[in-house]
Amino acid sequence: MVATIVEPRIGGRWYELGDDGSECDWGVVLAWDPPHHVAVSWHLDGDYRYDADARRSSRVDVRFQPQGDGTTLVELEHSGLDHHGPTWRRLRDDIASAGGWPGTLRRFADTAGS
Asked: In the beta sheet, which residues pair with residue 29?
């Protein structure tokens, strides 16, 4: 993977771009309200297989709250993991690991300059 792309509009794609030019869909933009909130659906199960059925997707909400001291609090909530069926626990464990959301948020903070 060379990039993760979020198309900046409700209904936009959220996908991975491979170094060979390939694309792998991850989900769809559900809410787009910069600079306060973005939400996307997550369509990858615990085996990281894409499932286009919205009934078997979870939701990722990211909120940005200015703290008044020049910093911003970033809150990420990934809900509805049980919608992914029998692989949901594996998905939960993966996204909670250092290589999951904690690592992603750390890279975001490093890039943003905190």
From this structure: 40
Residues 3 and 66: their CA atoms lie apart, in Å, by 27
Q: Which of 91, 64, 65 is nearest to 78 (CA)?
A: 91
Give yes or no for a contact between 76 and 49, defined as CB atoms under 8 angstroms apart.
no
Q: Which residue is listed with tokens 């993977």?
A: 1
Query: What is the 3 state secondary structure string of the chain?
Result: CCEEEECCCCCCEEEEECCCCCEEEEEEEEEEECCCEEEEEECECCCCCECCCHHHCEEEEEEEEECCCCCEEEEEEEECHHHHHHHHHHHHHHHHCCCCHHHHHHHHHHHHCC
How far is residue 88's CA from residue 56's CA, in Å, rounded to a whole number?
A: 10
Domains contained in the chain, CATH given = 3-112 (3.30.530.20)
42-64 pLDDT, tens digit per residue, is 999 999 999 999 999 999 999 99
pTM of the full structure: 0.91
Tokens standing for residue 103: 């690592």
Q: Alpha-carbon distance 104 to 6, whole Å?
A: 15
